[in-house]
Q: What sequence folds into this?
């Protein structure tokens, strides 16, 4: 029988603690053990980006990270994006610009972009396209997503950094 290990991860500010088989991915830890199904699993090979979450602030593909490897870390998922004052600026911008259709890829795009825009704004279109080049969308053709990022780039400071407009 596969051995298990106790894993404790702070997810969106709350402690998630489970004993899991040592080969459990971080994606499965979130989805299967803690009901956080906002993180989607597509390719399971680290290629499509659907499973992207932040691990100690850096974007990772949670299908190829072992839960035991994330033990003691902090993870942010799409479930933690919206706050008491409503949706995150990126979520609002995706809605406004129809940056999604089926929505399967959307959590991964959002978490990738949280890291990117959190570090730097004022991105040129080529930089936006480069930033999302590791995320695959089978539906939208990407134009709406790029437009959403342009908008979020402008609205980010007001809502996330708390700077008054
Ligand atoms: S499901 Fe993880 S990269 Fe595709
Ligand atoms: S919106 Fe359907 S895969 Fe991206």
A:
């Amino acid at each position: 029988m596969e051995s298990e290990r106790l894993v404790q991860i702070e997810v969106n500010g709350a402690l998630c603690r489970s004993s899991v088989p040592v080969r459990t991915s971080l994606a499965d830890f979130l989805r299967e053990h803690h009901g956080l199904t906002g993180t989607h699993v597509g390719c399971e090979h680290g290629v499509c980006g659907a499973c992207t979450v932040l691990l100690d602030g850096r974007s990772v593909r949670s299908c190829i990270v072992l839960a035991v490897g994330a033990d003691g870390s902090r993870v942010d998922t799409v479930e933690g994006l919206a706050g008491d004052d409503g949706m995150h600026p990126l979520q609002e911008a995706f809605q406004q610009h129809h940056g999604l259709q089926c929505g399967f890829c959307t959590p991964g795009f959002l978490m990738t972009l949280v890291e990117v825009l959190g570090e730097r704004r004022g991105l040129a279109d080529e930089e936006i396209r480069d930033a999302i080049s590791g995320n695959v969308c089978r539906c939208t053709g990407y134009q709406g997503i790029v437009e959403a990022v342009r908008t979020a780039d402008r609205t980010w400071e007001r809502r996330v950094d708390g700077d008054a407009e």
About this structure: The CA atoms of residues 24 and 67 lie 6 Å apart. The chain is about 35% helix and 15% strand. The mean pLDDT is 94.
